[in-house]
């Protein structure tokens, strides 16, 4: 790495103030700080000493996502082989799956990176490492058959509308990756919610587990899932992830490991995750009780099935816990997480046109997170004033 350091040092004057490529200093700075630790010092307060900077926080999140990419590739290959009646090794399935994932990943990188660099150059600030996580998340919440031009369009929308118009990283009120997913869902619903988008084989239908009970009235959700012969929608198989779905959302075991890793490193707050679990399990239990009074099959879906179906665990682990768009007070995090779990079940159960409710639940609570924190802080102030008056 020493020769790279030497090269960067030699070309640095070209990008510094007064240099020929001064306008592109953010590009040089981003390359330098990604490859090497920065020696820059803060010039104004607040001054905080910490062993982890933004770059390392983002890299830790990306590390937690790598196993999901690996399994996602294996699952894509396995699904295609299974419906086609072909037997392949795990390694063969992995390479087949990577053939679908890699173009999506690179398209998201190019599209999002273009806007990141453009805004950094125009605004004359450094390229923030936050895009690393957005770039890593977007392919994982897409189906393997998504057209690449739609990936580019959605990534552009997520980066520009979801983040840059608010001022960039740290200023956005919505999770950019979820904004990209929402754009695709509402602009091109057939490419992200149809039966033929989940298995990368032409002409093969691959309905997701959530869409099956959502399409039937006066039924029992578990019985409907158990009667599907093309795919195994048993609880254990949905937990281990060998089912049709978005690239990174199917294997719940790996998602849980990733969440535990991020909690251990202090990157995410456990209160949001636990609050969301309580909200989902409690609301799902209530809908089961109410199912006898309705013809809605989704109301019969047990709480533990809600947990392993769709993108709930993935969304809670990697998106709801994002510090910029979530609640910042401890009590607020409990409320914020609980409402995400509650709204996920409500949207899944009540809206038959949209059986997956996690995305909308998180985006909605992104909007209400500042309000939650405001009332929590005001409540704390009122309590302290009462204690002060009593003294």
Please provide a written account of the structure.
The chain is an all-alpha fold and 391 residues long. Among the domains are: 2-35, no CATH class; 53-206. The chain is built from 17 helices and no strands. It has helices at 2-15, 25-35, 54-84, 90-123, 130-140, 148-160, 176-187, 190-193, 211-214, 221-226, 235-240, 252-264, 270-290, 303-308, 312-320, 330-350, 358-390. Helix 3 runs antiparallel to helix 12, helix 15 (312-320) crosses helix 17 and helix 16 (330-350) runs antiparallel to helix 17 (358-390). The mean pLDDT is 84.
Residue stretches low in confidence (pLDDT < 50, at least 5 long) are: none
Largest sheet, in brief, is: none
- The average pLDDT score comes to 84
Radius of gyration: 23 Å
DSSP E strands, number = 0
Offer a concise description of the structure.
The protein has 391 residues and is mainly α. The protein is built from 17 helices and no strands. Among the domains are: 34 residues, no CATH class; 154 residues.
Record keyword descriptors for this entry.
mainly alpha, globular, 391 residues, 17 helices
Per-chain topology:
Blueprint: H1 2-15, H2 25-35, H3 54-84, H4 90-123, H5 130-140, H6 148-160, H7 176-187, H8 190-193, H9 211-214, H10 221-226, H11 235-240, H12 252-264, H13 270-290, H14 303-308, H15 312-320, H16 330-350, H17 358-390
